[in-house]
Design a protein that fits this description.
There is one protein chain. Helix 4 runs antiparallel to helix 6, helix 6 runs antiparallel to helix 9 and helix 9 runs antiparallel to helix 10. The protein is elongated and about 135 Å long. It is α+β, with helices and mostly antiparallel strands. Strands 1-2-3-4 form a four-stranded antiparallel beta sheet. The two termini are about 75 Å apart. Helix content is about 60%, strand content about 10%. The chain folds into two domains: about 350 residues, Outer membrane efflux proteins (OEP); about 80 residues, Outer membrane efflux proteins (OEP). It is built from eleven helices and four strands.
């Protein structure tokens, strides 16, 4: 019989150990993106000495003083960024709570109890009242974390805290970029409004001239009507861009979290905004792994690994110690005397033997959460790679388009001047002047759009490369 027990106990231990999942160590997944930027996405900056985006603070990248003041206003007042900061404080408190679980808990307790014993149970055929008072100035509860359950939960809480810090950095980068893009959009709309106002002024002068020549019998009603149509089209554009500027002001106020003073808003169009710094793209593996959103995804992945450790620890016994010292007395006035001293010590070890697969299911959930975190981490890297590649591709192409558009505007300005001179000389009709003027106006608007697109692309590239903190 003793021989059977000798083999039975080790056999049960081996059986239980065989049911326990193996420990998993965190390994960063390989970069799910190419090691170089794709062809057509030139990573070479215009300046050979351009720094990397991650080495530049936003104050160094956005050199316009007004824009920097608006960004500072947004960083101080934006509610989304404030919520991100408060979320950090919340998760930090949760981490402190989880970290405290590794230490013993000491409490004090004072209680009193009274109850009536009926006559048939009192032992002397008379009812009696029993009172008991207890004072426990030191009650200690402590879980011995021999198998890493509490330690794993603490590690998971720490990773969640670090993830929220990176989320706050990502929110700040997004906010800086949104403020800059809105500011530039307002400047572009202001420039388009200025073009429309100049066009209206020119058309009003031309309209008045054609009316006089028509009254003198040297122009037709058709030419008057054509000049008026061009003048009214300019009025429509003025109303349209005025509305856009109002919307831009509302958007900028919302991002800033407070009304932006009029002296900080752009004035004079895109030409009044200082040029943005040039930056280099660097190596994908270095750039992508520094972005706050990817760092946040990696911390979430590490937290998922820590939760696996906590789920694995459920297969081991959970050992806790509870004890206390104090006083117990049936009389309150004698509660704290020497003879009423008492103490308790209650060690406890629990291990579920049959739980209908709950521990196994929890471990499977933890593994699935880990796989989801891996997929989220890889997706964040792939999305970042595409964002940088798109911005790099547009950087060169938009510059080429802008230079070609500028040449087109210069050519159409010459055509407009020649058409106007030929009309005044009586060689051509006003229709040719109208066509030339419309073409020039459209080309000027296109140039403003390209300049705005190039500037906003530079802002997007700066964000995508991990700058902005």
């Amino acid at each position: 019989m003793n021989m059977k027990r000798t083999f039975l106990l080790p056999g049960m231990a081996l059986f239980l150990c065989g049911c326990i999942p193996q420990a998993e160590k965190y390994n960063r997944p390989s970069l799910p993106a190419p090691s170089v930027w794709p062809q057509g996405a030139s990573s070479q900056p215009e300046s050979p000495s351009a720094p990397e985006a991650a080495s530049l603070n936003w104050q160094d990248y956005f050199t316009d003083s007004k824009l920097r003041s608006v960004i500072e206003l947004a960083l101080a007042n934006n509610r989304d960024l404030r919520m991100a900061a408060l979320n950090i404080e919340r998760v930090q408190a949760l981490y402190q709570i989880q970290s405290a679980q590794r230490n013993p808990t000491v409490m004090g307790a004072l209680s009193g109890q009274g109850y009536r014993v009926p006559a048939n149970l009192s032992g002397n055929d008379a009812p009696r009242t029993v009172a008991q008072y207890t004072a426990s100035p030191a009650v200690v509860a402590w879980e011995l974390d021999l198998f890493g359950r509490v330690r794993s939960l603490k590690a998971a809480a720490l990773e969640h805290f670090l993830a929220t810090q990176q989320a706050r950095s990502a929110a700040q980068i997004a906010l800086v970029g949104a403020v800059a893009n809105t500011y530039l959009t307002m400047a572009g709309d202001q420039e388009n409004l200025r073009l429309a106002q100049e066009t209206l002024a020119n058309q009003q002068a031309v309209y008045a001239l054609i009316q006089r020549t028509r009254d003198a019998g040297m122009a037709s009603d058709l030419e008057v009507s054509q000049a008026q149509s061009q003048m009214e089209a300019a009025r429509v554009d003025i109303a349209r861009y005025s509305g856009f500027i109002s919307l831009d002001e509302n958007a900028l106020d919302l991002l800033a979290g407070a009304p932006v003073p009029a002296d900080l808003r752009p004035a004079g169009g895109l030409g009044s905004v200082a040029t943005l710094r040039d930056i280099t793209a660097g190596v994908p593996s270095d750039v992508l792994l520094r972005r706050p959103d990817i760092l946040m995804a990696e911390h979430q992945l590490q937290a998922a690994y820590a939760n696996i450790g906590a789920a694995r620890a459920a297969y081991f016994p959970r050992i806790s110690l509870t004890g206390g010292v104090g006083f117990v007395s049936s009389e309150l006035q004698n509660l704290f005397t020497y003879n009423t001293r008492t103490w308790t010590f209650t060690p406890q070890a629990t291990l579920p033997i049959f739980d209908s697969g709950v521990r196994k299911a929890n471990y499977k959930i933890a593994q699935t959460d880990r796989d989801l975190a891996v997929a989220g981490y890889e997706k964040a890297i792939q999305a970042a790679f595409r964002e940088v590649s798109d911005s790099l591709s547009l950087r060169t192409r938009l510059l080429e388009q802008q230079e070609a558009q500028q040449a087109l505007v210069r050519s159409l300005e010459q055509s407009y001047r020649l058409s106007e001179a030929r009309y005044q000389a009586g060689i051509d009709s006003y229709l040719n002047v109208l066509v030339a003027q419309r073409s020039l106006y459209g080309a000027q608007q296109g140039l403003v759009s390209l300049r705005l697109a190039r500037l906003t692309n530079l802002v997007t590239l700066y964000k995508a490369l991990g700058g902005g903190t």
